[in-house]
Amino acid sequence: AMAPGLLDLVHLTTWAVCAAIKLPQLVAVLRAGSAWGLSVSSLLLELAGLLVFLRYQIYYGYPLETYLEFPVVIAQDVILLSCIMHFSGKVRRACFYALVYWVGWYMITLQKRIIDLAMNLCTLISAASKLVQLQHLWETKDAGQASALTWGMSVYASAGKLQTTCVVTAVDFFGLCLQYFFSLLVLIRFIVMLILNIWVTATILHYRKIKKTD
Known about the structure:
Blueprint: H1 4-19, H2 23-32, H3 40-59, H4 69-87, H5 91-107, H6 112-140, H7 148-169, H8 181-213
Helix pairs in contact: 1-7, 2-4, 3-4, 3-6, 6-8, 7-8
């Protein structure tokens, strides 16, 4: 078992990483005045996944510390998307997306089964956002302004979340108890996110290395 002090440290550093997770990406985009290498679809899917996860936690009255980093990451995603839309001259489209998310935020809590279904799809939405970014990198064969540091921080955040979830829920992977089912779903989410974040980071570094050797 992990010592309580070490668990607190992992929790605190994970939150600190989340608080600044998109800043390297934002700096890279602003410095270049371009969002080449970044997939807008990936960011929109990521934002949808984060909003659903946050809405679910608020709806069911989870303790604040379990989702405290989500509003910070969402705010950074919104700023990053605004910059990308500005540089690509799609400000009207940005307003449309904002309206869709605003309406969706209220619509998913109209009925309990809607928010539950949305939460069940949340891992798929978040995984899709990473896969869309991967596909974008493979197609362009260029990392462009994609920040390896931001994705590397995502790897740490996923690993930190996975570690704290494992300790807090104390899930026995080999025990098939039904009470562990939801905890298992949460763990699967963080394992999938960890693998995909590592994959995207490695892909960005791979294309950056190729570009340097050219």
